[in-house]
Design goal:
Blueprint lengths: L3 E7 L4 H8 L1 H9 L11 H4 L3 E7 L2 E8 L13 E7 L1 H6 L5 E8 L2 E2 L3 H7 L5 E2 L2 H13 L3 E17 L6 E15 L2 H10 L12 E5 L5
Antiparallel strand pairs: 1-3, 1-4, 2-3, 5-9, 5-10, 6-7, 8-9
Helix pairs in contact: 1-2
């Protein structure tokens, strides 16, 4: 199965592009509109392997979209921005044990306290993590994803927020950007985690793990 990476650079002068950038629900629906709606699954995002991340690149704000089917970019509104897709097969095939890589992921680092702890400290069901606690969370996730970290830099990001019209529920996923360098310990496990994503909030811009080979100093 081919995995695709699509880069979309929204034109902030376009009303739809601005609205999508302000609301995680809008952006989720925009991305889903690039794929057929006849997917034989009750979970079309998961079936299509859709993960995405918004970030600032050399050309300004951009959306990185990963999927196991090539998106139909003609479904973007006229003037929405520029977009291009490429297969990730060469990158995935090149992963091997011991390979030094650079990584980046915007993830929803959280912990779920037990019922007794929640009652004792009046905690919500899901507690966002930050600082050293978030770094520890990512270190554990990386180790169970076939990576051993060599460097780690984390940056708090704006939360992914939006309002679901169908049930009037508010979506709010805290996000932290983790990036740095690592060595691959299990290529097959890493490929799986790249395909499936990591953590919660995958429908709203969390969990897309990007990997690139790192050149060793000469």
């Amino acid at each position: 199965m081919t995995l695709w990476l699509t880069r979309i650079i929204p034109d902030q002068r376009h009303r739809d592009a601005r609205h999508d950038g302000e609301d995680a629900i809008n952006l989720h629906h925009r991305i889903m509109s690039l794929f057929p709606d006849d997917v034989p699954s009750t979970e079309p995002r998961r079936h299509l392997g859709i993960l995405f991340r918004t970030e600032t690149g050399r050309d300004g704000e951009q959306i990185l979209l990963q999927s196991n089917r090539e998106p139909d970019l003609t479904q973007l509104p006229t003037g929405y921005g520029t977009a291009a897709a490429k297969p990730l097969t060469p990158l995935l095939d090149a992963l091997r044990k011991g390979l030094p890589v650079r990584y980046r992921i915007a993830a929803n680092a959280v912990r779920k306290p037990g019922a007794t702890t929640r009652a004792l400290y009046n905690l919500p069901e899901v507690v966002p993590l930050n600082g050293a606690h978030a770094d520890e969370w990512w270190t554990r996730q990386a180790e169970t994803s076939g990576l051993t970290l060599t460097t780690l830099h984390s940056t708090p990001l704006d939360a992914a927020i939006g309002n679901r019209r169908q049930d009037k529920q508010r979506v709010h996923h805290a996000r932290t950007l983790f990036e740095g360098t690592a060595h691959i310990t299990d290529p097959d496990l890493l490929r799986t985690r790249i395909r499936e994503g990591i953590g919660r909030g995958k429908a709203y811009g969390c969990g897309l793990l990007s990997i690139a080979p790192r050149r060793q100093p000469s």
